Fold these 3 entries.
Entry 1:
Amino acid sequence: MKNFYIGNKKLGKNQKCFVVAEISASHNKNLKHTLKLVRHVKKCGADAIKLQTYTADTITLKSNKNDFLIKKNSPWSSFKNLWNLYNKAALPWKWQKIIFREAKKINLSFFSSPFDESAVDFLERIGSQAYKIASPEINHIPLIKKVAKTKKPIIISTGLASKNEISNAVKVIRREKNNKIIILKCTSAYPSEYSDLNLKMINTFTKDFKTLVGFSDHTVGSLPASIAVSMGSCMIEKHIKLGSSKENVDNFFSSDVNEFKKMVDQIRSTERILGKKTYKIPKNSKKSLDGKRSIYAVRDIKKDEIFTKLNIKVIRPTYGISPIYFEKILGKKAKKKIALGSRIKLEYFN
């Protein structure tokens, strides 16, 4: 497990959570709209944009055979078959370099999910800063191996993965001497129900695979992302959209820019709440230190009088000596006269 960069943003232990806006199908087949969305991502406070790089033909066949038909209970059933859906959702490749350029101009990191080897070649040419392996590609070993050879950071989504499949993917990447790996806890349901998230797996992934771990959030709302951060997630990925549009096939579970900004703000608040591992008392708390107890004279005490529980007491405030000395003082003689209400000092009995 190690820290590394995506663009100029450092990911890993003791780093701010890396927030990724997944553009997915929110391009609406409109470049101007997409570039506007990228600029809104920056305003939301996110760290990066992510695209998806495929065509209908690189991901499926144009076929109406039963295997390629979309089930009637699917939210995408109106597209009839997979080819129609992916053809609608695919972001034109010729726009992706322009989108990356816009992201770079406004200091956003940028990368994509390739869905076949030709997409990796293309993304290398246009300078993708990292790669994500989408959940359905977890067993696409030729793709994973090709991505690993780039030596760039690799994010592995696990929504459809068994433990063995995750382990195998990590081994393939490490065999290529690439250890820049993030495993994303993911639930591949759109939208996801809270009861299916199982965010305790964030700690399990960290232990089992010795990688950085994040969360790909398909829920409605921002609470799960904040909880994931509190459990050690170094990355949060969530779909974003610019308003509502029937053109966007992911519209029904994507966050609009206002919702996304709220999520980022809550993540940053969560990080401030979590703070650091330290015993140091915060500056703002130090003014309450005088509320601690110390030892005071509760009667006038004569010189050579014996200290007892009747003439000294552990009380507030804190300006006398610490209560840890109370048992040591009892039975000793006072070296000087001490007035009621006076702080007891070490030189009064040592």
Entry 2:
Amino acid sequence: MLKLKYLFDNRDLVLMLLENWEYDENALEMLDYYRISASAIYPYKNNGETFFLRFAPYDEKLESEIYEEIKFIQFLHKKGLDVLEPILSKSGKYLLNKSTPWGNYLVCAFKRVAGDRLDGFGSDGIEYSDELITGYGKALGKLHKYSSQYEKVTKKTCFEMFNKMEYYINNKINSKKEILSKEIVEIKDYFKIIPQNSSNFGLIHGDFELDNVFITKETKKYSVIDFGSSMYHWYAMDIEITLNSLKEEIPQNDFEKMKALFINGYKEEYPLNENELTLFPIFRRFENMRKYIGLNETLEEKWDNEPLWMIELRDHLNKHIEKLENSFEKQKTST
């Protein structure tokens, strides 16, 4: 998530950045359906079709990583995978670094994928059917199959992320340093002994949760969006993140069945060593630490007279941070 100061809807900024793409001026009400989290995302229309403008402050993102994200998406698209499609700007570029009165921003745009988001199921009487969950697993397996064919670039790896974690804890965190440092060392040491090869380690999605996957009901075609969290990791990390998300959406009694359906669907598209499923706990510890650092970065700054929504969001995120700290504490007492 971006720092809190970037979560405001700055419509003048949006319109300034949108001028770099073709758009329908008579459909600007679409901008009201924006979302700001890891980036700001604003829907807009061009010739009646829906697109999304995505941008983030230059000091919040690495230009090289976004460029490589776009390259990976284009590779998957050429392979026939249904993924969001990057759109060229008026200047013929997919990624722009734009100077504005509010600072420099990294900006790109994508065409909306077809279908409905999977997180819209499970409500309004619509169930997560066996077929849907199996297809969900197949979609991730297919993504990993193509990722294993992708030529490695310089995008961040899980090992490089340890450097960021350690730096942040040593320089920005004032409490629980010992517990946090011990947790990182244990995870890092464990990662060093996990077998790694071209078939089980590669560029993962990093956020293959229900809200980032769409399905077209008529064709049963799955489409994937938001590769902003992608990194080089064990493919099983993607499976763990996905199943952890799914567990929060369905009745607890149904989870083991849904887990089996998802994994079986995955294995229809890409091989999976059953031993890698035993790595889920250590992968969850890595993901918890990654989230912990990210949440602390989001809350770094505080201002006088914050609006109510920001106060409530800050309180919500602080509770999540406390929950993560408790998990680190429990890990320490169990080892």
Entry 3:
Amino acid sequence: MRIVLIGPTHPFRGGIAHYTTLLCKALRRVHDVKFISFRRQYPNTLFPGKSDRDTSSSPIRVDDVDYVIDSLNPVTWLTAVRIIREYNPEKIILPWWVAFWAPQFWTILTMVKHCLACEVVFICHNAVEHESNFLKKIATRMVLTKGDRLITHSKEETGKIKELLGEDANAVTAFHPTYADLGTRQYAKEQAKELLGLNGDVLLFFGFVRNYKGLDVLLDAMPLVIRNRKVTLLIAGEFWHGKQKYLDQIDRCGIGSHVRIIDEYIRNEEVGIYFGAADLVIQPYNEASGSGVCQIAYGLDRPAVATNVGSLQEIIEDRVNGRLVTPGDPEELATAILDSLKPETLHAYSLSAAKTKEQFSWEKMAQIIAGAGPKLDAGFV
């Protein structure tokens, strides 16, 4: 099958770039894939992080990428249309995650569908982005109606798609594949702790720090946790905004000596050491769609304690490979963490986490997206 895949890849960083790159690798094992990517994603004034470029010395990448699309230059959108027309694909696959890409994707798809009879498949990482508003929802609806098939990573996101586009929308639930490939080197737990200068139990909060991820709830839970166990909370990820409020909260809670902060983008070659040192990966999210962090955890054999939102409640089997708790409840979160850190319980969860990754392969996802996998419905996961 001839497929066009559009989306970010190296040298851009982040979960969406990793996802499209790993998907491209899986698709190319079976299909002919033309990968069209970006020259520029966002203007500097709109990107909340320090940079959108991946500084990893061991990046995840593929060859034969057409770096064409500049988000601010419509001429490059037309160039992408020309390339797609000449390639004449049977299928076009695009990620959807923020409304910023509405003008670009709408223009490309409108022009392509005018002259080609190919299927358009959206991989909806977020049906509606986390910090949304009325205009963003309109823009999202405008673009997603161009899709012939919409694939989400959770039943909750599928419901949001149908709420946005109507019950007749061809939206199905798949799963978020494993991100084990990000851990280019794996470390034994005690080795990783020694290298990081940590001892005792380690809780890992990983990834960009944004309001919806509930770090404030985890910080409120920490006093109860440390009263019962010797625990270090390792926060590894770049703060996009509001770092000072978390620092103030750490002071108020009196937990400064139990918190280690690495405020930077975690390069691929460093992922293994942070997850290697973790006894538990903590995701106290207020909302979620798919979860790359959870799939890194399971890919590297680490159990998770998370809230029962989005795909987290479909990946984590409570009291089997981790724990699920109510969002916004520090006491319940602390209790789940303490229960999970009991040696026999932690051992059992870790063994189950190692088995979980086998269910979420990129090969299975590639089959689903290409239309060659199992028949899906909202109850697939």
